[in-house]
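Researcher: Before we compare anything, I want clean individual predictions. No alignment, no superposition, just each chain on its own. First chain goes here; please echo the sequence and then give the structure tokens.
Model: Echoing the first chain and its structure:
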Amino acid sequence: MTSYTAFVTDSWLATGPRNHIVETLREMPQVERASDILVFDDETGRQIDFDLRELEEEPAAPKRGRPKLGVTSKEVTLLPRHWDWLAKQPGGASATLRKLVEHARKAGLPDRAKRDAAYHFLSAMAGDYPHYEEAIRALYDDDRERFDTLTAKWPVAVRDHAKGLAWGQ
């Protein structure tokens, strides 16, 4: 499940799934500027906007046939030897591909993707903080000690969230 983190200026507000973030934002007192509220996708570190308006749900008309279960058809290009191997797997090609994808997802993001997520977050939140550029270099050099030193005077919530994205702390 995708996780998001919301900030008001440089203070942490909430972390969790979309519904939790939306409810938290709806319940908080109005802020002076809407631009003071920023929400980030925790996997990519990119800023994201949520529509906070309450939508009335229309009753869905019952449909005939099998439910789609969110399945979308895509094209996969493989060499013949790959198709041969997939065909020999228990459950067939689709089941095997699903298992491989789930295994890779559970293994987590590669280190570069984690650093990129921290960079995207910091670009939005800390671009004008002191030592920003040097901190980004330390981030990509995987130099946690230098990153800590350079960000010591930054707001704790911003620094800690960046470290969590980059190094899982």
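Researcher: Okay. Second chain, same rules.
Model: Second chain and its structure:
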Amino acid sequence: MASRLTEISLDCHDVDLLADFWTAALDWVVLHREPGLVELGPERREDQELLDAVRSGPVPPTMFLASVEEDKAVKNRMHLDLSPIDRSQDEEVARLLALGASRADVGQTGEETWQVLADPEGNEFCVLRSLAEGHFTL
């Protein structure tokens, strides 16, 4: 059996600012909070239930936000891709911009089908095509 992706960690200055942004962006909740560290995820599960689920197949990873002193210096080498499920790509981009995201230039040509944004601390992520009914076809 292979390993499972269970957590994504993101270093940042302000864990509370990014917790507010990412919980709203992903419709997640804060699962755990302590000074300098916040865990976000889709829901809270009992430990044994979560362990059984992880052992039986992939589950959505949680996100850890960890406070660090260093500034972000260059483009992320790994980033998140978000797919809107109940609205158009443009409507989702507008919603994320209203939550505090900003547009990011990572060298795109303008021909891409995705849009590149950055969270309030500058971590790039992409908004892919919409998966909403009427927007996505196979």
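Researcher: What stands out in the second chain?
Model: DSSP finds three helices and eight strands in the chain. Additionally, The beta strands are 7-12, 29-34, 37-41, 62-67, 80-82, 102-103, 115-118, 124-127.
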